[in-house]
Amino acid sequence: MKEILDFKPFVPSNDYDVSKSFYQHMGFKINWDDGEVCEVDTQFGYRFLLLPKNHNNYAHSLMLHFMVNSAQEWYEHFCSIGLTKKFDGTKVSEPNLMPWGLIVTHVWDPAGVLLHFAERPSEKK
Questions:
Q1: If the chain, 125 residues long, is cut into consecutive pieces of 10 residues, what is the mean pLDDT of each piece?
Q2: 70 exposed, middle or buried (CB, 10 Å; 0-12, 13-18, 19+)?
Q3: pLDDT at 47
């Protein structure tokens, strides 16, 4: 049977060095970089490939979704490291319960890629 051995989306950047620094500042790791593309490791089992270009302004159409244990903890992390102060054009939203039932903290990277840090709310008893 055919199988897929790996899956990594390509993520565009407007400024390759700034985007690499942004993701490292978030706590992600650059596994390798050949100047044409680099592999960004989220440090929790997932990776993506960062490109030095933003073809047709693709970044503003791209969203990455991360399921996490606590959107609030990620929001606090982004605030504590000064993500929006260090990187022009970035934004971080407070966690918000979305109509589809997840609590989401949104982060916009320097190129405009929208990152969702989402959690399933626990049942209150």
A1: 91 96 97 97 95 90 95 97 96 97 97 97 64
A2: middle
A3: 97
For residues 116 and 63, the answer to whether their CB atoms sit within 8 Å is yes
Residues 64 and 40 sit within 8 Å (Cβ to Cβ): no
Contact 76, 93 (CB under 8 A): no
Which domain, by its residues, includes 115?
A: 10-119
Domain containing residue 14: CATH number: 3.10.180.10
Question: Which position has the token pair 């993506």?
Answer: 48
pTM of the model: 0.91
Q: State the Cα–Cα distance between residues 46 and 13, nearest whole angstrom.
A: 19
